[in-house]
């Protein structure tokens, strides 16, 4: 198979993740695989491991709980974050761990982001916005999803994948926003 001669060869190849195209009906499992690839940029091995774990947990589940909750369990502290509403320390720690995958550190605007006084003066949405802004400078986007409870959860993707991330999330029925606009 030969490569296309130029970018114009791709114009009509836009993929519809909503499953509305009769020829391209994507099932939920395929969409979750795409999501894992997006939140593990350049690390297909981790995505594959997480996908296997996701499938295993979904098959072994007694009830048919939310698939996104199963995914969140699989990705926590490796490719995603989930913290309680007031747990600023855990948010900083989880974002630091996620950013370290790309040898990045978030500048929180203070010398010591673990200082109790600082942690008590901010909330998770403020920190999420800061992380979003700092990581955008390096080509990444912090996402947060509507958890419908008192937690904040999400992941980080490449900035260039923003539209694809929104399309995959919409197809899965996951309400997401950039970290600059927390739920």
TrEMBL record:
Source superkingdom: Bacteria
Chain positions covered by the region annotation Disordered: 1-23
Stretches assigned to the DUF6630 domain: 32-178
Xref: Pfam families: DUF6630 (PF20335)
Protein name: DUF6630 domain-containing protein
């Amino acid at each position: 198979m030969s490569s296309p001669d130029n970018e114009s060869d791709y114009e009509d190849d836009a993929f519809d993740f909503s499953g509305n195209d009769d020829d391209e009906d994507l099932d939920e499992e395929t969409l979750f695989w795409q999501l894992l690839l997006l939140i593990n940029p350049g690390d297909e091995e981790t995505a594959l491991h997480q996908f296997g774990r996701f499938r295993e947990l979904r098959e072994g589940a007694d009830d048919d709980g939310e698939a996104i909750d199963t995914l969140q369990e699989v990705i926590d502290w490796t490719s995603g974050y989930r913290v309680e509403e007031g747990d600023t320390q855990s948010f900083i720690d989880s974002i630091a761990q996620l950013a370290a995958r790309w040898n990045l550190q978030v500048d929180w605007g203070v010398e010591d982001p673990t200082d109790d006084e600082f942690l008590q003066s901010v909330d998770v949405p403020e920190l999420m916005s800061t992380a979003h802004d700092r990581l955008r400078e390096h080509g990444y986007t912090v996402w947060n999803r509507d958890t419908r409870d008192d937690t904040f959860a999400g992941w980080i993707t490449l900035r260039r994948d923003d539209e694809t991330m929104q399309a995959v999330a919409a197809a899965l029925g996951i309400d997401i926003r950039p970290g600059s606009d927390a739920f």
